[in-house]
Design a protein that fits this description.
CATH topology: Immunoglobulin-like
Structural class: mainly beta
Number of helices: 0
Order of helices and strands: EEEEEEEEEE
Number of domains: 1
Strand order of the largest sheet: 1-2-4-8-7
Shape: globular
CATH architecture: Sandwich
Strand content: 35-45%
Largest sheet: 5 strands, mixed
Helix content: under 10%
Radius of gyration: 15 Å
């Protein structure tokens, strides 16, 4: 994937990230969405999910370099869901395995994580979580804030 030299974090209210320009290097940005539980429109990164629903949380990863050849899909991807809306992941953070959707590229790639009662993680009703995405690369492992998830 190449060295990551700048990161755009898509958080609550910041909307879908636009392209990044990092001369000769790889830039990564990320935004999450659910299939049918987006609050607002496609520009909003806050998801609303019923506690009893099992479904994928999708995160679109934009990885570009000068030749538009950045490709993170060969790297392991993991998700974390943190209840402290101001905190960043720590060494104690529990990470959950995700996967890449096969039809990505050449600039936009989609990672996903199955959540809910039959998924890799179950959520507490009435709780809001910050969604974090980690892409394992060498020598770097970017950890990106991707939005929030409110469980109803």
């Amino acid at each position: 994937m190449g060295p990551v030299v700048c990161v755009l974090v898509a958080g609550l209210g910041s909307g879908r990230p636009s392209g990044l320009t990092c001369s000769g290097q790889t830039a990564i940005s990320v935004v999450c969405w659910g299939l049918k539980h987006i609050i607002g429109d496609e520009m909003n990164t806050t998801l609303k999910l019923p506690a009893l629903s099992t479904e994928y949380v999708y995160c679109q990863v934009q990885a570009t370099d000068v030749a538009n050849t950045g490709n993170p899909s060969g790297n392991p991807v993991q998700f974390a869901f943190i209840t402290d809306l101001q905190a960043s992941p720590t060494e104690a953070t529990e990470w959950y395995s995700g996967s890449w959707v096969e039809d990505g590229g050449p600039v936009l790639w989609t990672a996903r994580c199955l959540v809910g009662p039959s998924g890799v993680v179950t959520f507490e009703p009435g709780t809001t979580y910050v969604i974090w995405v980690q892409i394992a690369d060498s020598p770097e492992t970017p950890i990106l804030r991707a939005g929030t998830l409110t469980v109803v």
